[in-house]
Amino acid sequence: MEAIYWVLTWACHRKCIHCYDDRFRPYVRDNLKRVVAEGQSAYEAILDNLPDDFTYADPKDPSRRRQGLLVLAGGELLIDGVREELFYPVLEAIQRRWGAKAPHISIQTTGDILKPEHIEAMLARGVGTIAIASIDDYHVGLEGNKKFKLMDKIRAMMGQFGVQEVGLGGQRDPKLKTPAPTRSERGKGPYFLFFGAQPDLWIGELWPRGRAWANGLSDATYETNFCARWSGGKNFLNHGQTGSEVAIEPDGSIYPCCLKTKAPLGNLTEEKLVDILDSLKGHPAFEAINAGDPEAMGLTLGWSREDYRAASVQIDGKGREVANVCLGCDAFFATKLNQAIVDIRAARLAQVLASKPT
Q: By C-alpha distance, which of 351, 308, 358, 304 is closest to 330?
């Protein structure tokens, strides 16, 4: 795969109004242990069922292979109760799983609780990129110029360990621009970067999901095709090729995009990722997602493009009428695909059972 986005836990120290999933929130005492245990019980099986070869074809030279990317996120991975109990053990298990052939590991954190000892511990366990994902006005305490103070603090900490800053590009505010060398000038890492929910650092419209949807914060229109964007479903079936990416939840459920479809495609605690993806190839709805054209999901299954557009209109938490292709995808899954996924999974498992020696 080129990239896998793996949410290790729902536990977070924040309950942001723009979050794409309302399960990300503070948990305490037994509830925290319960939420963390979900990831603890699943991660070894998940790792076993990820590809042995975590590389993908170089788009400029298909005969060459590039190192894939494994993004670990929460929630917040550095809070007490998650860091030592789940996050660090997963990092160590990744090194045991792939050794020198491990994917490039990127982790996401809000950065406001980051300490030098956390940076040291992550680098020692193979982390190659530390992404600070809170540089926007939705994170309480980081509004306006407050975010720049956090950035300066983090830059000073990273400097202690020789971690180089890189940028996603597109920053309009000079305070957000990275002072780091260009890609051709920088070395092999480790790196850190800043991003957040704003147009010049990642996403301005917000996904029509979770608390962002409930609070009426998404400004995405029907023309905003998240499926064909970074973290969308485009190319998810093309494992081993450029653009191949899937998302994993703490229990091992997998999705073709980080926004997440109405139902998971399978579960990595029971089946291999490649087997699940290969079983979906050729199905017109999943091929439409793979093409970044979700409107085409139902063309051979009884839904015209006009039907899809009509199903893409819903009322958000502010009572506004909103249209977006992701909402149409949700409706199509609920109407047509949920049962199809169950049937395809049953066929996969039956084939596995039939292939076992008696």
A: 308
Helices and strands: H and E segment counts in the chain: 10, 13
Percentage of the chain beyond pLDDT 70 is 94
- Distance set, CA 157 to CA 176, 239, 341 (Å): 17, 37, 46
How do residues 146-178 score in pLDDT, each as one tens digit? 999 999 999 999 999 999 999 765 556 665 656
Quick one: which of 357, 16, 11, 79 has its CA closest to 214? 16
- Among 175-179, 229-233, 316-320, the range with the most confident prediction by mean pLDDT is 316-320
Look up the pTM and report it: 0.93
Q: How far apart are CA 105 and CA 48, in angstroms?
A: 17
CA distance 335 to 302: 11
Cis peptide before 208 (omega within 30 of 0): no
In this structure, is the dihedral angle defined by the CA atoms of residues 267, 270, 274 and 280, taken in order, positive or negative? negative
| Spatial contact of 286 and 280, defined as CB atoms under 8 Å apart | yes
Tokens (6 digits) for 94? 């990744």
pLDDT score for 350: 87
Note the pLDDT of residue 354: 78
